[in-house]
Amino acid sequence: MTRRARKRRTLRRALLGSAFISAMAVMGTQLAQSAGAQTCAVAHGTVAGASAQQFETVVSAASAGNSQAMIEVGHMYRDGLGVERDLVQARAWLTFAAYKGAAVGDINKQVAACLSEDERRRADARFFALLQEEEL
Predict the structure, then answer these.
(1) Closest by alpha carbon to 73, among 100, 93, 95?
(2) Dihedral class, residue 31 (left if φ above 0, else alpha if ψ from -120 to 50, else beta)
(3) Which run of H or E residues covers position 6?
(4) Is 88:126 a contact under the CB 8 Å cutoff?
(5) Would you call 124 helix, strand, or coil by DSSP?
(6) pLDDT score, position 7
(7) Is 86 left (phi over 0), alpha (psi -120 to 50) or beta?
(8) 133 closest CA partner among 65, 55, 76
(9) Is the pLDDT of residue 37 over 60?
(10) Are 72 and 60 in contact (CB under 8 A)?
(11) Residues 96, 61 contacting (CB under 8 angstroms)
(12) Which pLDDT does position 51 carry in this prediction?
């Protein structure tokens, strides 16, 4: 095989690989958006299942630095378990957990996809407030 033919074959493979990666990225974005839409569609309000006392217990553990409890608080806010559903608070607690090194997966991105730009800014402000509270 000539050098020119090898270059063409290499270029063709690179283009195919690039097209494949682009297609997978688009498909991943669509899946995340559909999953986010399902997360956003949860009704507002408090859902039966966890009591306010259970919520307070988990918040106490999270405030003490337990990153798994931080994730749980985020889930409870997201789903309205034992507390009024609040996606801004959910995003703040999940971001805090991620900051502490917890593996929050894609749930933080899904929650963020449900928020407006203003709500994202409020969630970021709440996250920084949580950081300052921890330092006290």
Answers:
(1) 93
(2) alpha
(3) helix 3-40
(4) yes
(5) helix
(6) 66
(7) beta
(8) 65
(9) no
(10) no
(11) no
(12) 81
> What distance in Å separates the CA atoms of residue 39 and residue 115, rounded to the nearest whole number?
11
Among 39-48, 71-80, 105-114, 123-132, name the one with the lowest average pLDDT: 39-48
Q: Which two tokens stand for residue 106?
A: 């894609």
Give the residues across from 47 on adjacent strands.
Answer: 81
Amino acid at 39: T
- Separation between Cα atoms, residue 90 and residue 111, nearest integer Å: 7
What tokens were used for 118?
A: 């203003």
- What's the rounded Cα separation, in Å, for the pair 25 and 30? 9
Give me the amino acid identity at 79: D
Q: What is the C-alpha separation between 133 and 136, in angstroms, rounded?
A: 5
DSSP letter at 47 equals: B
Tracing tokens 């000539």 back to the chain, one arrives at: 2
